Amino acid sequence: MMLYEVPSSTIEALERITSRHLRKWLGIPPSFSSVGLYGKTNKLQLPLSSLVEEYKTAKTRLVLTLRDFPDEHIREAGIVTRTGRKWSATETVSQAESSLMHKDIVGVTAVGRQGIGATKTLSGAEPTRLRGEP
Fold first, then answer.
1. Prediction pTM value
2. Cα end-to-end span (Å), the chain
3. CB atoms near residue 55 (< 10 Å)
4. How far apart are CA 66 and CA 109, in angstroms?
5. d(CA 47, CA 38)
6. Would you call 128 helix, strand, or coil by DSSP?
7. Are 109 and 115 in contact (CB under 8 A)?
8. Among 25, 26, 92, which Cα is nearest to 58's?
9. Residue 51 near residue 14 (C-beta atoms within 8 A)
10. Nearest CA to 1 among 60, 59, 61?
């Protein structure tokens, strides 16, 4: 899926078909949501991943691989990763990078009644509470 030019609408149609057959095979009613099948924060997590999620992950990896490739000829070749009209891997990568830059600029914000210095951050990780804090 990484190298082929398959539109995201085709992948979504394939996921609908596989989800329908999974529901039948597991004996789950058709009204059971896809979040229940593929969710990572559910109490009962099935060892399944969404086909659309895998497609988007593969396409964004391809964009990052081509952009950060060690050989300058490949980096500067201008290879465009096509994903269809609904979703763009290049735009997703740029939005994620701008979101991370914004998060670095803003820093840690207080949540609730926390005072300044109530949490300390590790580089690239979520804030952790200091000892003695609830």
1. 0.70
2. 47
3. 22
4. 35
5. 8
6. strand
7. no
8. 92
9. yes
10. 59
Backbone φ and ψ for 22, nearest 5 degrees, come out as -65, -45
Contact 134, 115 (CB under 8 A): no
Contact 61, 2 (CB under 8 A): yes
**Residue the block writes with tokens 């763009």:** 88
Task: Determine whether 133 is exposed, middle or buried from the number of CB atoms within 10 Å of its CB (0-12, 13-18, 19+).
Answer: exposed
Residue whose token pair is 């269809």? 84
Number of H helices, E strands in the chain: 5, 2
Please tell me the distance from the alpha carbon of residue 128 to that of residue 12, in angstroms, as a whole number. Answer: 38
- For the chain, strand residue ranges (E) read 119-120, 128-129
Per-residue model confidence as pLDDT tens for the chain (134 residues):
556 788 888 889 999 999 999 999 989 998 888 888 888 888 888 888 888 899 899 899 988 888 888 888 887 887 778 788 888 888 999 999 999 999 888 877 777 777 666 666 665 555 554 445 55
The tokens for 58 are 């593969």
Q: What is the DSSP letter of 130?
A: P
AA identity, residue 89: A
Bridge-based pairing state of the strands 119-120 and 128-129: antiparallel
